[in-house]
Design goal:
CATH architecture of chain B: Orthogonal Bundle
CATH class of the largest domain in chain A: Mainly Beta
Largest sheet of chain A: 4 strands, antiparallel
Largest interface: A-B, 47 and 47 residues
Order of helices and strands of chain A: HHEEEEEEEE
Strand content of chain A: 25-35%
Helix content of chain B: over 70%
Helix content of chain A: 10-25%
Largest sheet of chain B: none
Structural class of chain B: mainly alpha
Number of domains of chain B: 1
Number of strands of chain B: 0
Number of helices of chain B: 6
CATH superfamily of the largest domain in chain A: N-utilization substance G protein NusG, insert domain
CATH topology of chain B: Arp2/3 complex 21 kDa subunit ARPC3
Number of domains of chain A: 2
Number of strands of chain A: 8
CATH class of chain B: Mainly Alpha
Distance between the termini of chain B: 10 Å
Shape of chain B: globular
Oligomer: heterodimer
Shape of chain A: globular
Radius of gyration of chain A: 22 Å
Order of helices and strands of chain B: HHHHHH
Chain lengths: 139, 173
């Protein structure tokens, strides 16, 4: 008797989807859209890939030029990145899970790929949205 | 019923719930990734912790969350464990607020979405502390995906809750 009462009470107690739930969904989506435009800025400007290691800028590479480059970062595990006109991608990371390789080629402003074990972040930014000067750029 | 017997029953229930949480994360890891981004998961094991908070007690939810972080530590290392813990504890906070402090304000979908958002927030904050604030650029995507994954877990909770309740009754009565 007690069993079925408890089951019934919990089954009935809460609704699946109500007005307040709809509000939460809408609010979350609006914040997502707002942040998306905030991070993407104007993508007409030349795109630049920023490689961050351990929270510090490691290298910054323009993606618009016909420029191919392989960047090997001596972190633990070692991370290899490939830069081409199409964008920047993780080629391989010498770690077991290799999630970063699945993120493919990054070629839009605002896209980010992260290699957690090596603490490497690759992000594509459009120049207008960031205010770092030319002195931070190296080839 | 003796005190010892009750303690044994509680431990057994904790064991089975933890096993279910781990199994759910393992199974969803086998699914092909629905999402175009690295490492995004549905968070099905949240069903177990949400159930714990809503019915047998917050202590079970805390124990399951800590156990999951411990399991991540021994199988995937310190960083994974820290991410599991930060996300787990923050979303636990959300569950306590909406299941216990403000019951009936939100439906299962709303609670699922809030918990998914908080889980991701906890993880991205730890990521930012470890690697710098560039990772926040991932937040629009994570928020949008939390809405989807939270809705899925919320619906799943609604329909598995009676079954989980039945299971608990087996242990606690």
């Amino acid at each position: 008797m007690r069993k079925s009462a408890a089951v019934k009470k919990n089954g009935k107690h809460k609704i699946l989807f109500g007005k307040s739930d709809a509000l939460i969904l809408i609010a979350a989506f609006s914040v997502a859209v707002f942040l998306f435009f905030f991070y993407n800025g104007s993508s007409q400007e030349p795109l630049r890939a920023e490689i961050t290691v351990n929270g510090e800028l490691y290298k910054s590479i323009y993606l618009t030029q016909a420029h191919e480059e392989t960047v090997i970062i001596q972190t633990d595990p070692v991370v290899t990145l490939k830069v081409s006109q199409k964008g920047i991608s993780f080629v391989n990371a010498l770690c077991p899970d290799r999630t970063c390789e699945k993120s493919g080629v990054l070629n839009k402003a605002g896209s980010v790929a992260v290699c957690l074990p090596a603490r490497v972040i690759v992000s594509v930014v459009s120049d207008k949205s960031s205010n770092s000067g030319y002195d931070a750029i190296s080839y | 019923m003796s005190k010892k017997l009750v303690a044994a029953q509680k431990t057994a229930l904790f064991g089975i719930l933890s096993a279910q949480a781990l199994l759910l994360s393992f199974l969803e890891g086998l699914l092909p990734s629905f999402f175009p981004v690295q490492g995004i998961k549905l968070g099905l094991s949240n069903i177990v912790t949400m159930y714990c908070v809503s019915s047998p007690g917050i202590s079970y939810a805390l124990a399951v969350t800590l156990f999951k972080a411990f399991f991540a530590l021994i199988t995937r290392g310190a960083v994974a464990s820290l991410l599991s813990l930060s996300g787990g504890l923050l979303s636990l906070l959300g569950m306590i607020v909406f299941f216990r402090l403000l019951p009936g304000k939100l439906g299962y979908v709303g609670i699922g979405v809030i918990c998914a958002l908080l889980h991701n927030a906890g993880q991205i904050i730890v990521c930012a502390l470890l690697m710098g604030k560039t990772v926040f650029a991932l937040s629009p995507l994570l928020i949008a995906l939390s809405v989807i994954t939270g809705t899925v877990t919320g619906i799943a909770l609604k329909y598995t809750l009676p079954l989980l309740e039945k299971q608990s009754m087996r242990f606690l009565n």
